[in-house]
Design brief:
Blueprint: H1 3-29, H2 55-73, H3 79-103, H4 113-131, E1 146-148, E2 152-156, H5 158-180, H6 186-207, H7 228-249, H8 258-275, H9 282-285, H10 287-306, H11 316-322, H12 327-354
Antiparallel strand pairs: 1-2
Helix pairs in contact: 1-2, 1-7, 2-3, 2-7, 2-8, 3-4, 3-7, 3-8, 4-5, 5-8, 5-10, 6-7, 6-8, 6-12
Length: 357
């Protein structure tokens, strides 16, 4: 059964390694290049015109890898897997419309703020509502109305508040990845690490699933998750697809993911966290995205309250660039921070399971 995870990861990697340069040629031939802010680091001006909307590559690669792994192994798809893929694709579509209007229609602001928010809300609400449906034979739905850390915490917030909570998570992670996607390979490499963590979490939850309680040495230490193995398959496909895309997206980037990619990745991360019952843990596993988002919140809040800026420029990565760090140095050091977040997050996940034994 674990072959699904290997197949989905390898297929996702292969498809983006081979498919991304074809997408680069297509986008370049149509002149779909990136707009660069004039107030940012001067070194970024050389990136103007680099093909964007590269998220198309890993979104398609992930979906194809997931379904091909099912065909190869003969295993059925699950509602949890389809929901996360649907959330990723839906958020990617909103981002694509934003990129398309911004780049193809030459309107610098892209989708109007209300239209963009409406699209995200529609996709997020659909995911949250469907997540509370499709119970299996044990009564488990893909999502839960309980807040979770390494597993569900004992009290339910009810379906209405759950939808609000799910929307907050989806919007927060999407905007977090979007803000992080300012340097070559930064958001892609960080995402690879988090999806790798969710591959491990899915496998562990499958092995210690309450559905197999009769075969476990300690049935009290089991996980109540609807389709943990399939969530690992989705996470592996995303990890492989992002890894392959990173080959072309690392410095100097031949292509950018655009809002198409960043909104899709943020949606996928939130979807995996909700379905795997690790909602609050995501704030640590995706710690770099949280850190960069908070730098923007602090910068805006400080300027509005005091008229002063805390950082030379927000998001945080540009602050260090303006201090003289090279782009590659910022990316590698931020990757190290993200790697530490993943290690600590997985340590807490294991500790939460071990504490129940």
């Amino acid at each position: 059964m674990m072959n699904q995870i290997l197949f989905s990861g390898v297929i996702g990697l292969f498809l983006t390694l081979v498919g991304t340069p074809l997408l680069i040629k297509l986008l370049a031939s149509k002149g779909y290049g990136q707009y660069i802010r004039d107030d940012g680091p001067r070194e970024h001006h050389a990136k103007r015109g680099t093909p964007t909307m590269g998220g198309i590559a890993f979104i398609l690669a992930t979906i194809i890898a997931y379904f091909l792994s099912k065909v190869i192994t003969g295993k059925p798809v699950t509602f949890s897997g389809l929901l996360v893929l649907g959330l990723m694709a839906g958020m990617g579509l909103v981002g694509f419309l934003d990129d398309y209007i911004k780049i193809v229609k030459r309107r610098s602001l892209g989708l109007r703020a209300k239209a963009k928010m409406a699209g995200q809300l529609i996709v997020g609400i659909a995911y949250a509502v469907l997540g509370l449906m499709f119970a299996d034979v044990r009564g488990q739905t893909p999502a839960s109305t309980k807040i979770s850390f390494t597993e569900d915490i004992g009290w339910s917030i009810g379906p209405v508040l759950f939808v609000v909570w799910a929307l907050f998570m989806i919007l927060a992670m999407s905007n977090g990845v979007n803000l992080t996607d300012g340097l070559d390979g930064l958001a892609t490499g960080a995402s690879v690490m988090v999806f790798g963590a969710y591959t491990f979490i899915g496998v562990w939850q499958f092995q210690e699933s309450c559905a197999n309680a009769q075969t476990l040495t300690n049935p009290h230490a089991c996980f109540e998750v609807r389709d943990p193995l399939d969530l690992a398959v989705v996470a592996s496909a995303l990890m492989g697809a992002c890894f392959g895309f990173l080959w072309w997206n690392t410095s100097p980037a031949k292509i950018f993911m655009g809002d198409t990619g960043s909104l899709a990745l943020g949606g996928a991360l939130a979807g995996l966290a909700i379905c795997s019952r690790t909602e609050l843990l995501l704030a640590l596993l995706g710690g770099l995205f949280v850190l960069i988002t908070m730098s923007v919140v602090i910068q805006v809040g400080s300027f509005r309250l005091t008229g002063r800026r805390v950082f030379r420029m927000a998001p945080l990565q540009h602050h260090f660039e303006l201090k003289g760090w090279s782009e590659v140095l910022v990316v590698v050091r931020f990757w190290i921070i993200q790697g530490m977040c993943v290690i600590v997050g997985l340590g807490l996940f294991y500790a939460g399971w071990a504490a129940k034994k």
